[in-house]
Amino acid sequence: MSPGPEIPVQVWVDGQLFQAEQSLLVEHCGFFRGLFRSGMREGERPELAADDELLQAVECAAFLQAPALARFLEYSVTSDNCSLLCDAAAAFGLHDVLHSAALFIRDGAHELVAELELPEARAYVAGLRPSTYVAVSTHTPTPGFLEDASRTMCYLDEEEDAWRTLAALPLEASTLLAGVATLGNKLYIVGGVCGASKEVVELSFCYDPEGGTWGEFPSPHQPRYDLALAGFEGRLYAIGGEFQRTPMSSVECYDPTTGCWSFVADLPQPATGVPCAHTRGRLFVCLWRPADITAVVEYVVQMDKWLPVAELCHSQSYGHFMVAHRDSLYVVRNGPSDDFLHCAIDCLNLVTGQWTSLPGQFVNSKGALFTSVVRGDTVYTVNRVSTLVYAIEDGTWRLLREKAGFPRPGSLQTFLLRLPPGTTGPVATALPEL
After folding, report:
1. How far apart are CA 151 and CA 133, in angstroms?
2. Is 99 strand, coil or helix?
3. How many C-alpha atoms does 298 have within 13 Å on its Cβ side?
4. Which candidate among 76, 152, 192, 336 keeps its CA 20 to 30 Å from the CA of 394?
5. Mean pLDDT, residues 64-77
């Protein structure tokens, strides 16, 4: 039996009634596509046993075609709601929310896959690759005739408890005082120096793990080293840094779609090596001020302004780096006093504006803790002795497991990349001590 004729949809516009076929409206109009594929579509509503308020927000974002609400939901993904958001976004066609929730599950909440009710949500999660912890140590450009086996990026093979070589660095690339960041599952290296005179490396490089290839991309207008590089909201930000031994406050933004850099608002003060982190769709940096003050400021893209967030005073102490998790920023600094083999961690709650100190000291017998990366509800730290993985729980870090330390000397920069299936490489062996 063939289906009956499609019932026309009646639409009022400025007091005038129009009639149109539903299939045409769905095909040509995003609003009606969201309308008929949301909770107001014909047929049964999907059975999702979860928080009604969050589910209604997903429906509303789909029904009203509200990108701001959808982005808010993307930023709100946690281990408490990722299963619901993944199911609901799959049901109502919110791809970006689905992608964010599925990545969160794939990266660390594997047990929550069983809670997914929709087959399409489970299939989407299964089709994603987990992120891998990657590190690169300090290297300067080298002539081609001088082979240096240590000029490589390495990744942590957690199953085998070993660091493996991922790729060699380009000969012209420097990771000494360079900006290193990921964006869109690609690694970007900007700036850096070579030689005792701190000559700026003018070339910038991008690594694509899909093909395991390096390519050059335009450098910022202002040559700089000891900068912070952040991948945020589809763009790279080169923040502060130094040129000809002079600290700078200038900030530049790179759009990969156009291949162009542009200047944005300056930092409130000249700064080098500023720690930066982003969470909930917000970008933050730390600035050091006289009288032992750590100032946290936020870059607001819509306003093109840096706004003050909070300040913290610690005598004879400065911050090394900062990571973010949910509504908290964690500033890691040396301490106490001038003890560089211990690290103290202060937590800023972005909702209350209150600072708290994490209990205990983080001890590192061969080099202080200078780098860390958050993945899901865990944080990875590494030095030459061990890779330590902590669970972030109620504002504290609880040690989960210990893995092999990074076998190469030098300061480290770490990040996450999603590597192709079957990626392998030789074990990164330790080099002789000089």
Report:
1. 18
2. helix
3. 17
4. 336
5. 90
